[in-house]
Amino acid sequence: MTSVRHTCIYSPCKVQLFRTYFKHNQIYSAARGSVHINMNALFSSAAILFRNSKRSLLYGSMAVLTIGLEELIESVVFNCPCEGHFAYGLAFLWAPALLLFLAGILVDRDLWKLSRISNKEKTQTPAYRYVKTLLATLHVFIRAGIAPVAWLVLSFLQQQYYTCAYFGPLLTSDVTESNTTDKCHFKLGSRSRELEESYKTYSQIVGWSLMLIAVSVLFASVCIRRCIRKAKHLTIPSLEYYRHVEAKEALAHFHATAKEIAKRTLNRA
């Protein structure tokens, strides 16, 4: 009975099973390692992409927030009155744009670096430093104006604020010159469907024109900034740099050789 158990334990089939188990275990470990490496590479690529496009993502998020804010204000807060509609409409049209512009300037980190330009480039002429500071300031203003321009373009294209300022509340579908169903029925003689449509048309024209101007200014600023930016040429190190590197390597080799000789001397002793 003991010989049978001994044969069963150390039989070739058992050995083959153990080999197969360890082989699959090694394959599984290697697969887990490769998956871990691939995930690390994926996260690294995503981090690099986010870092390189961080500013573009910021501008995109600002535009999306502006669109959401405009829709919220128009649907919840805005209610064009009959009296004082001119100031009311212009306030909703320009006040949020001004607030967004000031907020964009405050959160721009490059604005606070303009004072360092004169300190870093004292060897340059004053005219060069002034021009560079002016261009950097204009670039800051252009970046800060993305959200306000988006607000104005949306506001003009949706026609509500401009029409409220220059026409008043919109006419209902059943308004005629002989009834008083209009909100501003006491001004019904100066309010007509044709005049309302003309103000809506003007609002859309202003919106598309503003969008065209904004895109043109942004395109021109990017082109000018790319053209005047100095190219980063590859600079060849001087001879002194190579001598320093060579001396450092020689010193490290000398220390390693001295340690080996000292170890051999101690072992012989």
TrEMBL record:
One of its GO terms (biological process) is ATP export. InterPro entries: CALHM. One of its GO terms (molecular function) is monoatomic cation channel activity. Its main location: membrane. Keywords: Ion channel, Ion transport, Membrane, Transmembrane, Transmembrane helix, Transport. It is a multi-pass membrane protein. Pfam families: Ca_hom_mod (PF14798). The chain crosses the membrane at residues 85-107, 128-153, 205-224. The keyword Ion transport applies. GO terms for cellular component: plasma membrane. This is Family with sequence similarity 26, member E. The lineage of its organism: Eukaryota, Metazoa, Cnidaria, Anthozoa, Hexacorallia.
